[in-house]
Amino acid sequence: FDATRVAGLLRRISEKQGARRTEGRVERVELNPETGFIEALRLDGERRVSGDLFIDCSGFRSVLLGEALGVDYVDWSHWLPADSAIAVQCEGVEPLLPYTRATAHSAGWQWRIPLQNRIGNGHVYSSPYMSDDEARNILLSNLDGKPLTEPRVLEFTVGHRRKFWNRNCVALGLASGFIEPLESTAIHLVQSGVKRLLDLFPDKGFSPAIIDEYNRQCTFEFERIRDFIILHYHANERDDSAFWVDRREMAIPDSLSERIELFRS
Fold it and tell me: What's the 3-state SS for the chain?
């Protein structure tokens, strides 16, 4: 699906059902000096948006949960060192394949996602093992059609916020964490986070028991997905590059070691 068009559809549905949209840049976050809860957001133009519960969807910056509330980040890059991606769209070709293809390269992998009017492509790689220029050349030399956009570089650190819900703020999407897209789990994590919030929706007392349970379930889910992605790298039998050899020989989380041993048994 075209993500931009889906987002527009969801916006129209929400607004028809009464959601109000206030557009602007967050300039300042007002915190209650006694409780540390978020009281309001100051937008450009001195507009003020107050609320009881805030959902942080501000992307990697995590403006509310990370910056304003100071929740630190759990870094998993020692297990999943891919920290960069280059994305580009190209012309579609026939036949139109009805699936996404992931192709391994010397320091990561490439995605190919066909739409009816174009193909989405990207190269995920580890910058200590490969330069941006080399990664860009590999991607452009493995396209099916003429590029339609200028390649753009994305940088990220795999991991998650130590708390997904702190005080009266819940983070969703990139604001809560990021696991590289080898199994396209990001949309699922947003959806499960929304469902979990609805199941545990608070009153104005914000019971610590509810918040702790939300964080426990989110952490469990993130760690299981993390192990699944690590296994793609750790179980490889390649010997053609240092990246793949290092992934096979690295220490892995105990939870994944136990799962592998259980499978062997």
Answer: CCHHHHHHHHHHHHHHCCCCCCCCCEEEEEECCCCCCEEEEEECCCEEEECCCEEECCHHHCHHHHHHCCCCEEECCCCCCCCEEEEEEECCCCCCCCCCEEEEECCEEEEEEECCCCEEEEEEECCCCCCHHHHHHHHHCCCCCCECCCCEEEECCCEEECCCEECCEEECHHHCEECCHHHCCHHHHHHHHHHHHHHCCCCCCCCHHHHHHHHHHHHHHHHHHHHHHHHHHHCCCCCCCHHHHHHHHCCCCHHHHHHHHHHHC
Kindly report the pTM of this predicted structure.
0.92
Q: What's the whole-number average pLDDT of the chain?
A: 96
Residue that the structure tokens 């997904």 belong to:
164
Task: Give the pLDDT of residue 65.
Answer: 98
Q: How confident is the model at residue 46 (pLDDT cuts 50, 70, 90)?
A: confident
Instruction: Summarize pLDDT for 94-130 with one digit per residue, the tens.
Output: 998 999 999 999 999 999 999 989 999 999 999 999 9
